[in-house]
Specification:
Chain lengths: 352, 317
Amino acid sequence: MKNSIELIEFLKQSELINPLHLNDSEELISPWYIKVLMGFCGWLAAIFTLGFLGMGIASLFDSPIGLSVLGVLMIGGSFFILSSAKSEFIEHIGLAVSFAGQALIVFAIFIHSESMELFSWAVLTLMCCFLSSLMPSYIHRVMSAYFATLCFSFFMFEAQLSSIFSSIVLFVVALMWLYEFTFSQQIRKLQSIAYGAVFGLLQFKTSILFAQHGQTWALESLPSVNQWVDEGLNVLVLLFILNLLIKHKKILLDDSQKWLGLGIVLLLCVGTFFANGIVSGILIIVIGFAIQNKILWGLGIISAIINLSSYYYFLDISLLNKSFILGGLGGASLILAFLSKRISEQGTHHEN
Amino acid sequence: MIDSNATETRQTLADLIEHKLLSEQDVPEAITIAEIYRSEQQWQNFMGTMLFWFGSIALAFSLIFFIAANWQEIGLMSKFALIEVAMLLAMFAYVKFKKNDIIRQASLVVSMLFVGGLMALFGQTYQTGADPWQLFFNWAIVTIPWVLISRFSVMWLIWVALLNLSLSLFSQTFGSYLDTNWALFLLNSFALVVWQTSAKKYTWLNKPWTINLLALVSAYFGLWVYLDALFLDKPLGILIWCIWAVAMFYVYRMWLLNVFMLAVWSLSILVAANALLIRVLPNSFDAFSFLLLTFLTIGAGTFLTVWLKGLIKEAQA
């Protein structure tokens, strides 16, 4: 892969860019860990702001309308702060004010509806989606997209459609990443939303592993996820994305490669039906590899490891049967690895 | 698997497109020039490596689960024979394919896991009455030769994880002697110091993500030690944490510039400063205190972010 200096040189030589304008693009993009630090500060400051409002104007929390109005005003104010943010200090204030404003709206909905219902989750999902596309801050968009994904998961729970939730998000996220560079001038916006959605999705896939008796933090009994439907649809998304990658790259597969691919997908199917969540992790790894995105790659690996580890605690199968299943999967995987190497060597041999 | 230039090149491409320096119709050609998308050969290598690692680890855990299931249909000697033969096969693969990095590393990791399985079987069979922490501690001690010959940072991380597990189980068993946060803070800080100083000499240890992970774990447990000491009036904990904070700053700012480590340090400082303010304020939970905490968080967060960004520019210059 070319580094950025080589890339610019090659683009100049190919006359795809005008060298006279190149200085315009010199701005520092913060690495992910600085964004995490900023997001954490915004979140912590928002909690303290809420504490200030709670202690200062406690009576406000008795009025859902008052809370909503103040919440909307704070989000609106934050939009203008972030739009005109010329310094880090202003951006931090904007994030804190907006997160606190959103929390006020959540409080208002909680107080109004007493329990979180379908409509409440729909409103929150739409609000977060709206904010993730509107707010002029990368960190804000990541966090709004993350909350939107979580709210959407609760909406789907309430609508008794939780089994199709992860596949919808996985499908959308995969397409967003594969077509990231085709959204002219909106690339960073798209990337931030896609990161937020991936975080939300992975949290959902992990939390359903640890959910007990279908209860959530709200202590309401909710319909549990049908793992067969959930994982089955995940496999279909994986197949679709793999097909897209093959077509996109115009790769011509010979028969042996097709059979090998089929073997790998079958292996993943069997694996994911027993150790739930593997396919979503694998798909994130595949996308991370395909577009050379280290963060996605790392997230996919962490997700796959968590899902595999939780297999030990899966109570529907005895430890002995788990051992036989793992042995079968491991053996099949090694055979496929051997075949893959042979096919690769044959390909190289034919080329020579 | 992911090119070391990938993050920077992807950012440059996004910059060029967002600033309209590259027209929409030229984007596919620019992506091809940047070589962001993978070749067929890279895909085949990727699939082969993933399948091999998955297969090896799955087989290792299959055997460990089998031992844990304590199946009565097969005899004791057969179980011992099974796991010992598996260990020998893994070591045979190591010797036979010494020049193939993936097989060499995977066979060592797998045989390290088998050692744990063998020790668990031994404990299960002879009812040694050992505490759980002893299994993981002995496992770590016995596998030192494996780790030493591996020249593989992941093996070292697994080894450190075994020590973490045994130490946390030990402190849970004998809680009055050793606090878990203290134990894990000291262990991981020590591991970080040793790793960082050895990384220059042994290039295979010099993987940034492994050192970053150790620093993150050390910072996490260090913060708990600090918070515990601050609110329960234990000055020693505060002193040790302050020494840790000064050392982190000195090493990663003055000695080796590492912005990730300084970001971890900044996060710790931010939390520590807020906790200190909560501790010293007369009424921690009145409106004024919350306002003060909000401004401290925003002010300190801003200062640290600007400082870190300046360091990135310094590192790039």
